[in-house]
Design goal:
Blueprint (H helix, E strand, L loop, with lengths): L6 H22 L2 H23 L1 E2 L10 H6 L5 H10 L3 E2 L6 H7 L10 E10 L2 E9 L5 H6 L1 H7 L4 E9 L2 E8 L1 H4 L1
Antiparallel strand pairs: 1-2, 3-4, 4-6, 5-6
Helix pairs in contact: 1-2
Amino acid sequence: MLRQTSLGTLGLIVGGALTIIGFIAYFNGNSTLNLAGFFYGIPLLLGGLALKAAELKPVRFTQPSTPEVIALRAQATTTQSQIREDVMRYRYGQEAHLDTSLERIGLSPTDAERPVLTGLRETEIEGNYTLILEFESPLISIDVWQDKKQKMESFFGPGIKVDITQPSEDRVDVALITTSTAVS
């Protein structure tokens, strides 16, 4: 549950409330509550602002997973599970989801050209669990993605086959398909 909660927003709410309580206590002459409000409220408020500035929102499923696909999650490799969990939570201090992975694969020459993960979905392909990563990629062509297919398969680990499609001009879908060797 904490993974789905923005710590920046939580810091702003708690810090803001304590700061307001501190100001009210100051004007009412309650020095103990005043000190608690200022000493705890203002740092929490500032911390919340800092976290909010460095916050990367979670990526959501673009379509709900069917019960059959959820049952197939048992086939998921460690890498697939880790990717799904990491991109579906708030991150702090990162520019984009999977930024270091894209850089290592060679799909992020500059920050401006980096593809942006906009969604994900789970499906079944040939009886195997599949995690599909949906990228906005206006500056990197599908040919460059296809050239990196082998590198992606080795990067995302054993037991994964990669399939790359282009559903629209600026969008690329990367399907991470569990192979039968990973299921066995």
